[in-house]
Design goal:
With 279 residues, the chain is of the alpha+beta class. It is 35% helix and 28% strand.
């Protein structure tokens, strides 16, 4: 009991001593505070380094993900730019096609069927191209095929969903697939007539033969189809006269014609369909 009483008295004295205002910390408090601060410093720095390391890894991963998103966005932008440019070019080309088809319909009562070129055979002995429409679209052999610039050839073979076009550059009197084209000169339809039946790959000119020696055909005249052959349309521009010579036997003239059509860049062509076979 005595020891308990002494302890209570000491405890009350310590309470009174610590409750009051003091000018500074006691030595034990200072020692304890310094020790705690030292221990905290020893453990805090390595911990902060480790935490910072993992935080840097997390930031690096986020940076990589953001970089990938930016790369994807740039690639998408480039693709969209190319696609937009292509769509703009296609739209402009189709507008020209529409104007062309309306003009051709008004010239002569024919219908033009747009076809996409699906393949081209550049073999000098078999210059043809294949289009994506056939019997299902009313296409028949012998129909004329043209572009915005001028006549390019005739349909030589037809299947249900595709057709083969023999180009003017394949014209050869000895070939069974290349039929001659009856032609005349724009503005001189009544006194100029000839047959386009050959292409010279060396000069790049078509040869219009059987022209009367009294014909008034001249250099730079524009040659077109005459329409006298059944099923073949009139007013199809063929090309421009570049040279005129007397034929081998001196009884007629031969005109050398530069084709109006471009035979190197194929996108769309138009099959000329007479009204009686319009599907």
């Amino acid at each position: 009991m005595f020891i308990l009483l002494v302890g209570i008295i000491i405890f009350i004295a310590l309470m009174g001593f610590t409750v009051g205002s003091r000018a500074g910390l006691s030595l034990p408090e200072k020692f304890t505070k310094d020790m705690v601060g030292f221990v905290q410093q020893v453990f805090y720095k390595p911990t902060s380094y480790v935490a910072g390391f993992f935080e840097d890894i997390a930031n690096l991963k986020k940076l990589q993900e953001e970089n990938e998103r930016l790369k994807t966005s740039v690639a998408q932008y480039k693709q969209d730019s190319v696609r937009y440019g292509n769509l703009a070019e296609t739209n402009e080309r189709l507008q020209k096609d529409l104007e062309f088809t309306e003009e051709q319909k008004n010239r002569h009562n024919y219908n033009l069927r747009t076809a996409q070129v699906i393949s081209v055979n550049s073999d000098p002995n078999n210059r043809v191209l294949n289009i994506d429409i056939g019997k299902n679209a009313g296409i028949k052999e012998g129909m004329a095929v043209t572009t915005l610039d001028g006549l390019v050839g005739t349909v030589s073979h037809v299947s249900n969903f595709t057709a083969t076009v023999t180009l003017l550059t394949a014209l050869d009197p000895s070939s069974s697939d290349a039929n001659a084209i009856a032609a005349t000169v724009v503005g001189k339809e009544n006194n100029t007539f000839g047959m386009i039946e050959k292409y010279d790959p060396k000069t790049g000119y078509l040869q219009m033969t059987k022209i009367s020696e009294n014909s008034k055909i001249k250099k730079n005249d524009v040659v077109m189809s005459s329409g006298i052959i059944e099923g073949f349309p009139k007013y199809m521009i063929v090309g421009t006269v570049k040279k005129i010579q007397v034929s081998e036997f001196g009884l007629a003239q031969v005109a050398y014609i530069e084709p109006a059509a471009n035979f190197t860049d194929w996108k769309e062509v138009f099959v000329v369909i007479p009204p009686e076979v319009t599907p």
